[in-house]
Design brief:
Elements: E1 15-20, E2 41-42, E3 46-47, H1 49-58, E4 63-68, H2 73-82, E5 93-98, H3 112-117, H4 120-126, E6 130-135, E7 139-140, H5 144-154, E8 158-166, E9 174-178, E10 184-189, E11 203-214, H6 215-226, H7 235-245, E12 249-253, E13 269-270, H8 275-284, E14 312-314, E15 316-317, E16 320-321, E17 323-325, E18 328-329, E19 334-336, E20 339-341, E21 344-345, E22 350-351, E23 356-362, E24 367-368, E25 373-379, E26 384-385, E27 390-391, H9 395-401, E28 403-404, E29 410-412, H10 414-421
Parallel strand pairs: 1-4, 1-6, 4-5, 8-12, 14-19, 17-20, 18-21, 19-22, 20-23, 21-23, 22-24, 23-25, 24-26, 25-27, 25-29
Antiparallel strand pairs: 2-3, 6-11, 7-13, 8-11, 9-10, 9-11, 15-16, 28-29
Length: 422
Amino acid sequence: MSRRPVHSAPLARSAMAYVLAGGRGSRLMELTDRRAKPAVFFGAKSRIIDFALSNAVNSGIRRIGVATQYKAHSLIRHMQRGWNFLRPGANETFDILPASQRVSETEWYAGTADAVYQNLDIIESYAPRYMIILAGDHVYKMDYEVMLQRHCESGAEVTVACIEVPRQEASAFGVMHVDEADRVVSFLEKPADPPSIPGRPDVALASMGIYVFETSLLTEELKRDAATPGSSRDFGKDIIPAIVARGGAVAHRFEDSCVRSSGEADAYWRDVGTVDAYWRANIDLTDVVPALDLYDRDWPIWTYGEVTPPAKFVMDDDNRRGMAVDSLVSGGCIVSGTRVRRSLLFSNVHVRSYGQIEEAVLLPGVLVGRHVRLRKVVVDSGVVLPEGLVVGEDPDEDARRFRRSPEGVSLITQPMIDALKA
C-alpha cells in the first residue's frame, strides 16, 4: 500500500472529489447502447464508477459530486442505491449532477471543463479548499490523500496524475513531457512520437485524467475558459495545456499513491474502453493470484449490495455436473449440470444443463439454455441464450451473428439473439 507523508491533518477533509461520468464509451459498442461507460458492470459485482468513488471514500474524502450526461438512468439508479450512505449531518455530501441546462437553456455539458463550470455555485456552497477531478471510467486503486499532499508540497497550480507506459504504446494517450523534477514541460494529445521520461528512453508518462487544484484557482481557470471563444471546454484540450504553458503543472506518478495489497505485485490501472480490454480485465480476475485484488479488506471497493440468495450448483452425474472452476460466481446464480471454467457470472445468472462455459463474462440476469457452449464471450445483462447455441468455435459464424472483436471476443446482446429467430 502507498505510504502517506506525515501531515498534521488529512487534506482530504478539505477536498471535494468531482467525478466526470458523462461519457458514452463508444468503443465498448453495444455494451453502452443503454448505459454510460461508468455504469458498465465489472468484476462480477461492481460497476466501473465504483473504483473512483471507492478511492475517494477510502482516501477520506467526504464531499463528492458526480456529473452525468449520456444515458444516465442506470448510473444514477446505481448511485442512489449504493452511494446514499454519506450523511449531510456529518458534513458529508454526495451530489448527482446531471446535465440540466442550469447555465444556458440551450446547452448541455459542452466538455469536461464545462461539466464542472456549470456547477460552480454548488461547489462554492461547500467551500472546499481543494478539488480533485476524476475520470469515472477506469479501474484502479489509489490513495488521493498522497496526491493532495504532494500537490501542496510542490506549490503547483495543477497536479496531474500520470502512469508510466511503454513509449511505443503511449500514442493512445495524452502524454506529459516532464523535466527531472517532474515539472510538466508540454502536454501532447496522442502524439505520433511520444516523449520519454528523462533517463528512461523506453517509457512515457500518460495522463490518467486525474487533476488536483486549489478551488479558487480552478474557479478562475473555468471562468476564463468559459469566456474564451473557440474553446472546446475540455480539461485535456484547454485547461491543462494553458497551465502547462505558463509552467504551473506538475506530474504525480501513480506508483507513489497506488494502493496495493500483499498479493499485488504491480501498480494496477486499466482503461477498459474496448470490448477486448473489458473482457481481458474481467477474465484476469479469475487468476489464482490476480493482478487486481478485490478481496483487500483494507481498501474495499464499495458498491450497491443487491439482496440475493446464495449461489447454487446442482446435478452431479458424469455428463451433467454443475460446477465452476477458476471463476467468480455472484449471489443468485444457479449452475445446473454445466461446467463453468475461468468465467465471471454476475448476479442472478442461471445456467442450464449439458453445456460448457469457458472464458465467459455473463452480466446480471443472463439465462443460458441447455446444450449451450460458450467460449471467449461477453453477454449483456438480461440476455436469454437459446438451447443449443454455440459461440467461440467458428470465427466466421460468430462474426456473422454477433459483434466479434479484433482479438476474437464475441459480444452478445438480446437484439442479436432475436435476429437469429427472424
